[in-house]
Amino acid sequence: MRPTCWEVFRISVRSGFIRNDFDTRTRGADAVFAWQRDWDGGATSSGVLAWNWTALDLVDLAQPRQIDTFLGVPLKQPATLSLLTLACQVEMETLNPRHRVILTGRHESGPVCGMLRFNYYTSFQTCPLGNTLCAHADGQTALETYGATLIMAGELGWTLRRSYRIALGISNIFDTVPLVDPLETSSTGNAHPRALPWDYNGRALYARLTADLL
Fold first, then answer.
1. pLDDT above 80 (res 190)
2. From residue 157, how far is each of 46, 48, 58, 161, 172 by CA, in Å?
């Protein structure tokens, strides 16, 4: 049996929409410095220094809502709903480092080229996985602080017949990846924080082949 116009309207009235549950304010600044020098014999050296400052503040969020009914049916046990846990509220402001610095140096001499990059991150904080309150049983904060970190990467490449270039590189040369608290490792199996400003897989080797077909 086809629904009447009233039934279609009644169904559409019950439709809901997803909305943002919080407001944030992001401030930032960037500075980039570049240098290049051509040497006798055709070699070229260049360097780029980039700095970034980012601050994210949670300025407002919706208060937890009491849910008494579901699809018009009263609940036997009302529930309190909040899209943001206390851990999420804290990590919004502490998870990303405030300062990041990237220094990249390149040198090309004939068919050979090399690159060395330094990535510097200031300290950041995160809550243990599964701790929605970001606090211990005694009420003390459970925030874990990770200190400033320097990540290095390097690459060496060769140009073949002007149209092809092969490169071999290594990222995170010193395999710098912080460890989480042993209690979190024993309870969840995580060895490293679930969110890092850099790749948490650690050191990696790679090869790249580039072809110029024009």
1. no
2. 16, 19, 45, 13, 18
In a domain, 182, yes or no: yes
pLDDT, tens digit (0-9, with 9 covering 90-100), for 122-167: 998 888 776 777 777 777 777 888 889 999 999 999 998 878 999 9
Name beta bridge partners: 209.
166
**pLDDT more than 90, % of the chain:** 40
Residues 6+ apart with CB under 8 A from 48: 32, 33, 34, 35, 102, 103, 104
Rounded to whole angstroms, the Cα distance separating 213 from 94 reads: 47
In a domain, 11, yes or no: no
For residue 207, give its domain range.
23-211
pTM listed for this prediction? 0.75
Can you tell me the distance from the alpha carbon of 91 to that of 85, in angstroms, rounded to the nearest whole number?
Answer: 10
Q: How many helices (H) and strands (E) would you count in the chain?
A: 3, 11
Identify whether 9 is part of a domain. no
3-state secondary structure of 181: coil
Within-domain flag for 191: yes
d(C-alpha 36, C-alpha 43), whole Å: 11
